[in-house]
Design a protein that fits this description.
heterodimer, A: 114 residues, mainly alpha, two-stranded antiparallel sheet, 4 helices, 4% strand, B: 531 residues, alpha/beta, seven-stranded antiparallel β-sheet, 12 helices, 28 strands
Chain lengths: 114, 531
C-alpha cells in the first residue's frame, strides 16, 4: 500500500452496519463486521488484516474471499481497491499436507541433475 | 531435479497452444495442470464457438480441447495432469505435487497460463449449500454428469451466465429467472435470445436481496436496485429455488507470477491483479511469460492465439527460432487476434454504451433489457427478409466476430464480406435450397429457415434444436415466440440430423402463416390451455 499512509481512521467512530454479521471468509468464518473493525483497529494492509484475523488464510487460500475482503477494507479506508496491495503469494499455492512435503527427500530422483 | 527447456503451467486453451508452438520449434516442453482432465474450461464447453474458420468457429469447445491435446502430443510436448505447481522459485525452479510426491523441475523459460477463477458476491445466505458459481454448475453438468439442482436462479447476464443457463435447461433444470445488477445484458444477444425463447425472464437491474433456507437453499428474494446500488422498496420478487448460480465475472489467478517476483498491476479492466507484460508477453522477470486469462480476462479463442504467440516468444527466447521467423509467425497471429478483438464486444468497447451497429442500424433496446429482439424491431436487421419460397432468416443483430454462415451456404445466399463483424445479409438473387447448413452452423442458433406460405394458410419454420428427446415427425406441440410466449399449435413436419450438423437437429414446424415471423421455438409439452 503505497498511497495510503495516514493511519488516523481509528479516530473515526465505528458505526455498526446492518450486514456486519455476514460471513465473508467462509474457511475461517470471519464476518464483514470483524473486517471493518480491524480497519478501525489500525490494520490497513491486506497482510495486516490477514495476520490479525486469519481471513484469506484458510483452505481456499483466499480464492473466494480475497477480492471481497479487499473491497471491504478499501471501502472502509475510502480508497480504490486497486490501490491496496494484495497480500504476499507464498508456496504452497494449494493446500498441501505436511507429510507430503516430508516425503520430498525420499523421492527418487530420476532426472538429470544440474 | 528434472530439466526442460520450457515449463508451461496450465493445460487450458492458452497453455496447450503455447506448449504446441514451442515444442514444434524443437524445444523440450512440459505442461502441468492441476486438474484430472486437460483443456481448462474447454471440456465443459458444449456449445459451438464463434469466430471464423481459423478460430475454429462452429466447433464445440470440448472438440477443440481434444484437437489441441492431439496436437500437443504430436508436437512432442509432455502433458502432466493431476500435477499442481506449488511454487516458482529462483532461477525458474518449479515445485510440483502429483499424488503424494513432490518433484522439482527447472527450465530456462516458463509460460504461466493459469487462467482465472470465478468471482463471488456476498448477500444474506450466500454461504448456504446451493449457492454455487456458474462455472461450478457447468463442471457438474458437463464433466461429472450431475445436476446442481432442479430450480435455479442465475445471477449475472454475461456470457457465462447466459451459456450456463441454457445448458442447465438442456440438462432438464428449470431456470426461474436471470438477474443482473447492470441495467443491460452483458453477454452476446444471441446467447440471451436462446434463453429468452424458453420463456426465462430477465430482471435488470436486479440483484439478490437474500437467499432463504436453514441448511440449504429453499428460496431467493431479488429486488431492483437504483443507481447507487440501493434496493428499491417494494420491488422484491420471490422464487422457490434450490440453487443459486453466481456468474459475476472472473479474476486472473496470477499469484504464481507474484511469487516469482514479476511486477504486478491491479487493473480492474483486466479483471484484477495481472502481471505487467511487454509486447512479447514477457513479464518483468526475463524468461517468464504470461498467456491467456492470467494476463487479462478475455475468452477462449483469443487465449488460444495468445498462447501460440507466447510459445513462439519463448522459443525465440530459448534460441529455437530466430527473430525473423518469430516476427513472421507473430504477424499472422496478430491478424487473427485483431479479427477477434473487433465488434461491439471488443475489449476496447468494454463499458461503452453502443447505440448503433457498424451498419448504422439502431441496436435493439428490447434485446438489451429483456433478452430478445421485439417483433417491431426485428425486420430492420439486414438478415431478416420476407420472400416467397424457402429462405434463411438471420436474427444476428450485433457486430460479433463470427462468419460460419457465409461458408456454410452451398448456394452463396449469405454474405458477410471480409469484415468479420458485419451483420449477415441475404443475397436475394441466389436460390435457397433449404439444406439447413446455415441453421446448424450458426454458433448463436440465430438462423431460421422460413417458408412463409406452404398453402392452406400455413407456414413452415425450421429451427435449430439442441435438447434431449428430439420430437418426431407428426408430433404436435406449441410454437413459442422470441420471448417464450406460447403462440399457436405447431406440428412437427420434419426432423433432420446429420453428422454435418454436429448434433444440432433441424426441426421444421408447421404453423398458421401469421406466426411465421414470430415463432422461434418449439415446445413439446401439451400447453393447449394456454394457447
Amino acid at each position: 500500500m503505497n498511497k495510503v499512509v495516514d493511519r488516523s481512521l481509528g479516530d473515526r467512530e465505528f458505526v455498526k452496519g446492518a450486514d456486519d454479521d455476514m460471513i465473508i471468509c467462509r474457511c475461517e468464518e470471519i464476518t464483514k463486521g470483524e473486517i471493518r473493525r480491524a480497519v478501525h483497529d489500525g490494520m490497513y494492509t491486506m497482510a495486516e488484516i490477514r495476520r490479525y484475523l486469519r481471513c484469506t488464510m484458510g483452505l481456499c487460500q483466499g480464492q473466494t474471499c480475497a477480492k471481497l475482503v479487499k473491497g471491504i477494507v478499501a471501502r472502509e479506508l475510502g480508497v480504490p481497491a486497486a490501490e491496496l496491495e494484495p497480500a504476499s503469494s507464498r508456496s504452497p499455492m494449494r493446500p498441501t499436507e505436511m507429510y507430503i512435503f516430508a516425503n520430498e527427500e525420499s523421492e527418487e530422483e530420476t532426472g538429470v541433475c544440474l | 531435479m528434472k530439466r526442460y527447456d520450457l515449463i508451461v503451467i496450465g493445460a487450458g486453451p492458452s497453455g496447450l497452444s503455447a506448449g504446441i508452438e514451442a515444442a514444434k520449434s524443437g524445444a523440450n516442453v512440459i505442461i502441468f495442470d492441476e486438474n484430472a482432465r486437460p483443456g481448462g474450461q474447454l471440456f465443459k464447453q458444449i456449445h459451438k464457438f464463434f469466430g471464423s474458420k481459423e478460430h475454429r468457429a462452429k466447433v464445440r469447445g470440448f472438440n477443440i480441447g481434444s484437437q489441441l491435446l492431439k496436437e500437443a502430443d504430436e508436437a512432442g510436448a509432455e502433458v502432466r495432469l493431476n500435477s499442481t505447481v506449488l511454487g516458482i522459485y529462483q532461477d525458474k525452479e518449479v515445485v510440483v505435487r502429483s499424488g503424494e510426491a513432490i518433484t522439482h523441475y527447472k527450465a530456462d523459460a516458463i509460460i504461466v497460463a493459469t487462467g482465472a477463477s470465478e468471482n463471488m458476491v456476498p448477500f444474506e445466505g450466500w454461504t448456504l449449500p446451493g449457492v454455487i458459481g456458474a462455472g461450478a454448475a457447468q463442471t457438474m453438468l458437463n464433466l461429472h454428469g450431475l445436476l446442481p439442482g432442479k430450480r435455479v436462479l442465475m445471477l449475472g447476464s454475461g456470457n457465462v451466465g447466459l451459456v450456463v443457463s441454457f445448458q442447465l435447461k438442456q440438462c432438464g433444470c428449470e431456470v426461474v429467472a436471470l438477474a443482473d445488477a447492470a441495467p443491460r445484458i452483458g453477454g452476446y444477444g444471441v446467447h440471451a435470445a436462446k434463453v429468452a425463447r424458453y420463456g426465462i425472464p430477465f430482471y435488470l437491474p436486479y440483484t439478490i436481496k437474500k437467499v432463504e433456507g436453514t441448511d440449504h437453499v429453499t428460496g431467493v428474494v431479488i429486488a431492483k436496485i437504483d443507481q447507487n446500488f440501493k434496493f428499491i422498496e417494494g420491488s422484491e420478487k420471490h422464487f422457490d429455488v434450490d440453487t443459486i448460480c453466481v456468474a459475476v465475472g472472473l479474476s486472473p489467478m496470477s499469484q504464481l507470477m507474484k511469487m516469482a517476483g514479476c511486477e504486478m498491476d491491479d487493473n480492474p479492466k483486466k479483471g484484477g491483479q495481472v502481471p505487467v507484460i511487454d509486447e512479447h508477453g514477457q513479464t518483468s522477470v526475463p524468461g517468464i511469460f504470461a498467456a491467456g486469462d492470467v494476463s487479462g480476462i478475455e475468452e477462449a479463442s483469443s487465449a488460444m492465439i495468445e498462447g501460440r504467440q507466447a510459445g513462439i516468444y519463448a522459443a525465440n527466447y530459448l534460441g529455437y527460432i530466430d527473430d525473423e521467423k518469430m516476427n513472421e509467425k507473430e504477424a499472422s497471429l496478430d491478424a487473427a487476434l485483431d479479427g477477434l478483438r473487433q465488434g461491439m464486444f471488443a475489449p476496447s468497447n468494454r463499458g461503452k454504451k453502443i447505440e448503433k451497429t457498424e451498419e448504422g442500424i439502431d441496436i435493439s433496446e428490447n434485446l438489451l433489457a429483456k433478452g430478445y429482439v421485439a417483433d417491431d424491431e426485428i425486420e430492420r436487421f439486414p438478415g431478416v427478409i420476407r420472400k416467397i419460397g424457402i429462405h434463411p432468416v438471420m436474427e444476428c443483430t450485433q457486430n460479433i466476430p463470427c462468419n460460419p454462415c457465409q461458408d456454410a451456404c452451398p448456394k452463396g445466399c449469405i454474405k458477410i464480406g471480409s469484415k468479420i463483424t458485419s451483420l449477415p445479409v441475404v443475397d436475394q438473387t441466389k436460390d435457397c435450397i433449404g439444406c439447413g447448413m446455415c441453421v446448424a452452423s450458426c454458433p448463436g442458433q440465430a438462423i431460421f429457415l422460413l417458408n412463409e406460405n406452404v398453402g392452406d394458410g400455413m407456414a413452415e419454420v425450421t429451427i435449430p434444436y439442441e435438447f434431449m428427446s428430439v420430437p418426431e415427425k407428426g408430433d404436435k406441440g406449441v410454437a413459442l415466440s422470441r420471448s417464450g410466449h406460447p403462440l399457436c399449435i405447431a406440428e412437427v413436419v420434419s426432423v433432420k440430423s446429420s453428422p454435418a450438423y454436429d448434433k444440432t437437429s433441424l426441426l421444421t414446424m408447421r404453423i398458421p402463416k401469421e406466426f411465421a415471423m414470430k415463432a422461434r421455438f418449439y415446445k413439446s409439452e401439451v400447453l393447449a390451455k394456454t394457447v
